[in-house]
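Onboarding guide, step 5: your first structure request.
Type a short instruction followed by the sequence, for example:

Predict the 3D structure of this protein.
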Amino acid sequence: MSELDDLTKAKIVQMILNGKTEDALEKLSEFYRVETPQIVVGTIKKKRRTVYAVYVPAEKKIYALNSDIFYNPFVILHEYYHHIRSKLGTHRGSERHANMYAKGFIDSYNKIAELLNHRH
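The system replies with structure tokens like these:
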């Protein structure tokens, strides 16, 4: 799986923080050449309400518990990881891998933010 650069990852995080979650997922999906998952605020019947978000492969949908989660880059990118894993034909990947994927974006965001802060 090819790797995004720090600036692109930082932009994706910024988009989600700015409420442009669908646009961020669209950009990522273009990069990975996969269908963009739908993202909705709501819970799924029969699912524990303790989860903040869940990806349902059969529906190609990410369900976010509420609007706070909808704008949470870590949770959204974690669930998006499950989407690309299911689309690219490889096993779904562990929760640990999904966390590492999301953390990579957050780390890039923080790195770019720090660089920008040092310029002033």
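Each response can be followed by summary notes, for example: The helical segments are 6-17, 21-32, 67-70, 73-87, 95-118.
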